[in-house]
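User: I'm writing a short report section on ligand binding and want a predicted complex to refer to. Could you take this sequence and cytidine-5'-triphosphate and write out the structure as tokens? A short remark afterwards would be nice.
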Amino acid sequence: MKVIVGITGGIAAYKAPLLVRLLRKEGHEVKCVATDHALQFVTRLTLETVSDNKLYSDLFDRGNNHSTEHISLKDWGDMIIVAPATANIIGKMASGIGDDALSTLLLSMSRKPIMLAPAMNTQMWECPAVQRNIEYLRSVGVHIVSPTDGELACGTSGTGRMAEPEEIMRQITSLPDARPIHESPLNNMRVLVTAGPTYERIDSVRFIGNYSSGKMGFALAEALASMGATVELVSGPTSLSVHHPLIHRTDVESARQMFDAATTLFPDCQAAILSAAVADYRPEQTADHKLKKQGEEGMTLKLVQNPDILATLGSRKVEGQTLIGFALETDNELDNARHKLEKKNLDYIVLNSLRDKGAGFGVDTNRVTIIGRSGASLETPLLSKKEVAEVIVRHCLCH
Ligand code: CTP
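Assistant: Sure. The structure tokens for the complex follow:
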């Protein structure tokens, strides 16, 4: 692969030559583009030596073969990674400003994968304008290598340290397929996602619930939004938060509330992914006070069935809508999942394996099998829920 490494003016620029070396070690060709400020932290000679190529830094460099040489780099490179990316370059990119060789090149690379590895002081990273810019760039498909926590050059500690070159390298090599990430393949698509558990009230202080954390559903919402979709996220009770301008969140508690929200939103959506762990039953009666202990006799709760949200959407689905459900099975996994796909009129069903230690409720990883109507299936290895979410969205919705 031909990789352009952009370097901007932050102390983490001293790590850029290491990234270039890692890329070259893996057999990639590298050309570097640095801002003037970057060259205060790392020298031209170092970057030219490790990349074994000329460094680009000046829009009007006399040494360029022609005045738009930096732009022709866009045709040469298969992707660009800016490491470190300062708040300044992030702001310029989000606003469409090109006033030096790197920012101009970034504007011209909208058809190629773009990655940014931000590095800055914690307060700068948390500044609402920077976060808004990051969210915007994510939503149009720019891949952000999140900064990490730790000691910062300014003597404080917090989030803002550039990810280590090895981690950036890992994310470059696991970039989902060769599709330009700066495309928004799901632009103009509205997708409903259900997430988390439902709580079914017994009385004013007790409920029947389950261990679902909502992590898979939230990861799906983020993956969809990062590909340009508007997301209607209907969430049961969870401690998770989400901040993305394309994600509209509706919080619910019970299965019936989730049913009402989902059925209201679905007609305006082109797709729905129902990952919530909905309680199949609820207490027939709920008390609006705390029930007293019933004594040694014990206590019987009569449960009545909740509406099946997925099956209801399946029966209301119209041409052009894609419906994706989840299945949690312990026996006869594939057969049961296929049966559910048919019975609930789904386009895809995502089978969650409970056999893997790292898969299922509460954990950050998952391993799934995605089964389509034709019977064809796609099995993932154990991946982070974020990666699983990207695979599901790409496989089921990006055609
Ligand atoms: N689901 C739903 N509404 C319900 C129950 C389930 O929308 N009342 C959805 C879940 O969000 C999931 C799928 O249906 O996408 C499968 O849920 P699962 O619990 O595996 O299956 P059930 O249909 O409840 O069947 P069973 O419990 O018999 O396996």
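A remark for your report: The two ends are 25 Å apart (CA to CA). The longest helix spans residues 385-397.
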